[in-house]
Amino acid sequence: MTQTQRYKYPLQLPQSLKETATRLALEDGVSLNQWIVSAVAQKIGAVETASEFLKSRAGAATRGDLTSLLDKAPDTPALPEDSI
Fold first, then answer.
1. What's the rounded Cα separation, in Å, for the pair 65 and 58?
2. Which of 20, 33, 63, 69, CA to CA, is 20 to 30 A from 76?
3. Where is this region: Disordered (predicted)?
């Protein structure tokens, strides 16, 4: 999608969210539509950044790697106050 292409999406918000978003858009001096577009873009950026960060931290680790570490952990809490 190029910058000039726009798509309409019928968004249904609970009244309380719409009222809050409207208030925040007014405070920011933008339209409600622009505020929602910005909020969606921020969320996408955060999710994609977190995903890339976690992938880089995991490296070549596999689920089996974690399981082997957990298997080595004691079955009892480390401190008495940690017990249930």
1. 10
2. 63
3. 65-84
Mean of pLDDT values over 24-53: 94
- Is pLDDT at 60 greater than 60 in this prediction? yes
* Residue 5 is assigned to a structural domain of this protein: no
Q: Which ranges in 1-84 belong to alpha helices (H)?
A: 15-28, 32-58, 63-72
Statement: residue 41 has pLDDT above 90 = yes
Domain contains 8: no
Whole-model pTM: value is: 0.60
From the list 49, 25, 46, the residue with the least C-alpha distance to 36 is 25
| pLDDT score of 17 | 97
Domain assignment of residue 56, given as a range: 35-72
